Amino acid sequence: MKKITLLSFMTLCMFSNAQTTFNFDWNMQSTNQQITIDVGDTVVWTWGSGSHNLISTSGTHTFDSDYHGQGYTYSLTFNEPGVTDYTCTPHASMYGTITVNSTMSLDTSDRLGLKIFPNPVFSDYVTLKTSISGIKNVELFDLNGKIVLRTSINTNNLNVSSINAGVYFIKLSVNGVSETSKLIIR
Questions:
Q1: pTM of this structure
Q2: Does residue 149 surpass a pLDDT of 90?
Q3: Which CATH superfamily groups domain 20-101?
């Protein structure tokens, strides 16, 4: 039982930290890229023309993309606060710094202003209201971290009639901003 509780807690932490994806070009114009993100955010670099690598040179994080050509994408989720410098080894003009801030402050924990009601859910639908408008991408996870529902909705109502009663974690993403909360279905 302790293992299941620990796994559930780790899953919640993992999904509650998932935040935003940032996209950057990685080409000869990528001089002194200054990127500031929060713990749990993902950065995706897309290669421009030529052959490049993306390698950390100092700091908190260690990464090395190897060499790739135009169109390649390299993605990395940063789960630890700190500052890391990076470069393209053959092109000294391609370099930057990524600063990863801790997300322990209250102002980042409620990024969507997510309001879920009723919670617990006693009917076929739950209302998901956010302060950001747009298509809502929804993932529902059981306590073992297994996805039991993945869908997109353009309303505030999510049909949960096919979901068994239980405790779940709901991850809602709108326009690249995510928030995770607990959802109880009766």
A1: 0.49
A2: yes
A3: Cupredoxins -  blue copper proteins (2.60.40.420)
